[in-house]
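Protein modeling request. Please complete all fields; requests missing the sequence field cannot be processed.
Requester role: graduate student
Desired output: 3D structure, token encoding
Chains: 1
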Amino acid sequence: MTWKQSESVRIDILAIGSHGDVLPTVALGRGLQRAGHRVRIVTLGGFEDVVRSHGLDHLCIGDSPRDIAKSAAGLDWVEHRTGTIGFLRGFVRVAASMIETGIANYWPASRDAEALILTPLGIPIGVHIAERLGIPLVRISYAPTRQDWAGREHLTTALRGDVEALMVAGARLLVWSRLRNVTNMARQKILSLPPLPRREPSKAMNRRGVPLLEAYSAAVVPRPSNWGSWIHVTGYWFLEEPGGWKPPAELVRFLGAGTPPVFVGFGSTPFPGPDVATDTVVDALSRIRQRGVVVAGGSGLRTGRLTDDILSVESVPHGWLFPRVSAAVHHGGAGVTAAALRAGLPSVVVPIFGDQPFWAQRVFQLGAGPRPIPAKRLSATALAEAISRARDDETFRCQATRIGRQIRAEDGVARAVEAIQDHLATAPAARRVS
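Delivered output (434 residues):
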């Protein structure tokens, strides 16, 4: 079964993860809706308001990321996520519980879907649903894996890329070996599908050319020449606030009371030692007499008026705040990195885990910020020095400004919608993921 581009298709976007995973899919969903498709965003708990405020249907299929982070498996992951072994072990425990619950909760509501779009954490749930329904699927990536994109212009970087390729392949096999049993139980028990073999299934999707939308700018990560035509570097998917949103009055007063402050935010998942981190941020900004706006999100940093010159709020959209600050201190999540670069802000990146070290290194390599500070090495002295460099070194600002102009000239959502519609126009029914 195939669709013509002019036809309306019922598309579910399985956006499993934190705010950084979900918000870009809302922007994509709006683009697909404008193109005439019927779109539903399927998430964990805590996202219904933001999805529905943008006029999209919503379905919740599990506990919120904050609740998961407070579970025994989540606490173990948060505590040990800065090491490779600890990260993989914690991820497997969290993913195992999500796979069976996610498939069980989503399957009864998925029957009218005609195509599925999957975030990275949505893949272990969505590929099996797509196979059972016999519908096309599209994958989303917010960062290339390190072996997929590595500078190859020197022998050392080529060798490093090969070593990383082996490490990533080994990690995928390890994760799959731990998740295979629970996955096959859910396939058989809930979906009446045959079990999958020992080989890791993502390679089969790559061989079949299942579309992969890389939702970042080629100005930040150039597309390698050896990638297949099924991989699309679309540009970023930015979500603008719906009409009627107003910032907190206290924040508006604070911004108008002095020079542009520095933004500090470490994402929507718990930051290691949040009380100590809050004190470190306050100490660093105070040492250099710099005003600051801290956005706590779900990181656990304290909120309120931390000093006369430092205000901490729970949340505020990056798109609204970043044009009003002088520099950004953040954890290197794909979303906040994109927002800072789009705004032309130099960044001080404090990566914790996952793809954050990659984005931290890209910011540094692009000349848009000083050398990153790993979270486990964060200190007031190091942070104060890095902020001063980011704020005062005109080279960083010029590079960030240049990249920002390129990003603002792109329309990542439009390119993604075009790639999706091209695929749906010719897509065969989904086949077994192995």
